[in-house]
Amino acid sequence: MSDAAPDDAELLARALVALNRHGELLRGLGQVFAAGGHELYLVGGSVRDALLGRLGTDLDFTTDARPEAVQKMLRGWADGLWDTGIQFGTIGAAKGDQRVEITTFRADSYDQVTRNPTVEFGDTLDDDLVRRDFTVNAMAVRITANGPGEFCDPLGGLAALRAKTLDTPSAPQVSFGDDPLRMLRAARFVSQLGFTVAPRVLEALLEMAPQLGRITAERIAAELDKLLLGTDPVAGVDLMVQTGLGAVVLPEVGEMRMAIDEHHQHKDVYWHSLTVLRQAIDLEDEGPDLVLRWAALLHDIGKPATRKHEADGGVSFHHHEVVGAKMVRKRMRALKYSKQMVDDVSQLVYLHLRFHGYGEGKWTDSAVRRYVTDAGPLLGRLHKLVRADCTTRNKRRAARLRSSYDDLEARIAELAAKEDLQRVRPDLDGNEIMTILGIPAGPQVGEAWRYLKELRLERGPLEHDEAVAALQEWWNART
Q1: Which of 55, 251, 291, 369 could make a disulfide contact with 18, Cβ separation 3.0–4.6 Å?
Q2: Beta bridge partners of residue 93, listed in sequence order
Q3: Domain HD/PDEase: where (predicted)?
């Protein structure tokens, strides 16, 4: 959307263009439901995205037909069906390369204790729309045998979308009490859509943030990922922190507001970290990189725990990368992330300061090899993270840091041209070690293998005879 707010006619025309790209599918579905004597509406995020000109291929619908009737009607039309959400009234279908989900009108009730509703099917579209999270997600388009028809907006979603405002269909205290995850979704939509929250929504977030503790870790993590992958995750993270949502799901980020950056160029480490996140995003070259974004956001979370006031009046954070990597592991495990995700993000946090020992390019080839080996497949991301971590306003210092890292990358490329730096392995394998030393498989082979790998890192590739001689010398010295 442009800076000048478009009028309703422009938005609706944009939506019609988007929907007409799916005309064949919409007409086919409309004909199926009309023949069955049932109503069908495109609904929710699909309508919102059509109005914003960003409609994808996964479409959401709602209907007065019960799930079993939906299944029956779709069997002759869809290429595939699934019913994993049938207990919530949802039937999924595939047609060509498009996927649709069709949910029976809902009029759920909540106990305000868990986020699990008592599923109740509704009888009208209005019943269904009023139970949705935000008014911009509570619009619908009737689908007929001829395709898109009437635009339905009983709750003012179009006006909210035009104003780029997130508001709730009912009182936000009721909406968030029904499902506290909606509070985190507000921060996610701020990131994804560039919207702001309505004053009454902000008030409810501040009041009700602790209720987010009712939500499972897996659902929290899914929302955090979507937030970080948005177009403006800094805005989403800041809303989360300022309202207290962050204190529930990611407290380490907000706690960085207590630690002054050692360069005194930023208000605090928190804003420095958000700047690094924004700069890391600017360096992405193959689309959004979730691992890089997590690492950028969390790279300095060890600073509050390592903060020390020095005698000269300065502030230091010695070994904050080590402490931070441990904190990342603890938090991401609590959020039930995969082992690979935890390993990757924590390793980037652990390594992000290593470059600052490079100085004026005085690292030995051995040190460069270790840098590459320790980063492994994360090297490209580490390059971006280190560059993004330069937020100084001192132009001369910034230029010097960029030049030093340019030099390091050039040295890495130079060594890589001579050696396979991405696969630094000993010059002898386990079988050769056992043959040369006359020992069986066991811990001693592992010791010898690790020694040879260290030697390879230190001296680079060895000729076979050199490696054998070094191995025998090491073995004789230890025995």
Answers
A1: 55
A2: 81, 100
A3: 265-420
